[in-house]
Amino acid sequence: MFRLEKIYIISLIFAVCVAKISGIGTQFVNVPASVDEIKYGTQNAIIQFPVNQLGKTSVSISHNDWYGGFSVFSMKISNPILGGQGIIRLKYGGFENLELRSEAPSDNPLGIYSAFGLDITSGFQIQYHDYQIAALLRMMKLRIYTHSSTGMTGCISILKKMSRDWGFGFSVAQFGYMSPFIENKSNLPVSANILLIHKTDFKQFRNFFSFTGGAISATDNYIFSATNSIKWKNVDLSLASHISKNVTEISGGVSFLLGIYQIEYGFRIADHKLGIPQVLELTVILP
Asked: How far apart are CA 147 and CA 145, in angstroms?
């Protein structure tokens, strides 16, 4: 019999609670990899295509210190294609330097390893008359020690312009298939959501409000996210609230556009007091 060091046990318990499987669970798909995801959530594929980057090629790099010492790195390339916008994103997150020990006390561990999640996402967005349509396809691998699970997930979002200022739509997120993890079935956090947005322009200011709400069948849960963003010239300030069955969270962010460079910072605070995740992101918008 082997046991994991104390810090890993704490992290493992947290992962089991949110994902209902051992190790790095399928909730990895909902761990934010960008400032927009930490502000708006991960149920809407459209947020992967920021307005100021549409029709342009851009490269983004971000780092997220998530709960429990879980570190996430992401790199995304966005480029115009076929009259729309395409993206490719690499996301990696995990626990490093985990120690494998025997039941007998010893100074040295039997081995050092990591538990991680890796996904490669491709996506496409297009504007068709009054409809904004975005789709993501994700290939994912979860691994802990010698055990792993692989699969594919998808997300489709459709938003219809109802008037000059309002938009309404729906999204189906994180549907797909994952292979069993050890002896446990890997249940993806599939969610069906409604989308609502409102834009207001006043002189040099633009206010953007977004609401996303839906049910997550695999965990018998729900999530509602409301985000308000105010943009003035090249500065963007955001504040959001996220409410689920067991957790209430507040997130926010600030963005500065300096020529071809966009620097973004985001944070999230929750009532479970597991820490304050922070994301730092740099985007280069190519001419």
From this structure: 6
Q: Does the predicted TM-score (pTM) go above 0.85? A: no
Helix (H) / strand (E) containing 36: helix 35-40
Q: How far apart are CA 27 and CA 37, in angstroms?
A: 14
Tokens of 14: 């947290």
**What residue type is assigned to position 178 of the chain?**
M
Least confident range from 4-18, 155-169, 232-246: namely: 4-18
Answer CATH for 2-286 from 2.160.10.10, 2.40.160.40, 3.40.50.300, 2.20.25.530 = 2.40.160.40
Q: How many CB atoms lie within 10 A of CB 192?
A: 15
* pLDDT for the residue 206: 94
CA distance 90 to 59: 12
Residue 280 in 3-state DSSP? strand
CA-to-CA distance for 42 and 47, rounded, in angstroms? 8
What is the token pair recorded at 75?
Answer: 């790199």
User: 125 or 100: whose pLDDT is higher?
Assistant: 125
Q: Of 16-20, 66-70, 157-161, 273-277, where does mean pLDDT reach its minimum?
A: 16-20
Residues 6+ apart with CB under 8 A from 212: 40, 41, 43, 44, 171, 193, 194, 195, 196, 223, 224, 225
Distances (CA, A) of 197 to 176, 194, 208: 27, 10, 7
Give the Cα-Cα-Cα angle 19, 89, 160 (nearest 5 degrees): 85
Distance of CA 190 to the CA centre of its chain: 14
Q: Copy the structure tokens of residue 254.
A: 């600030």
Structure tokens at 87: 């993206």
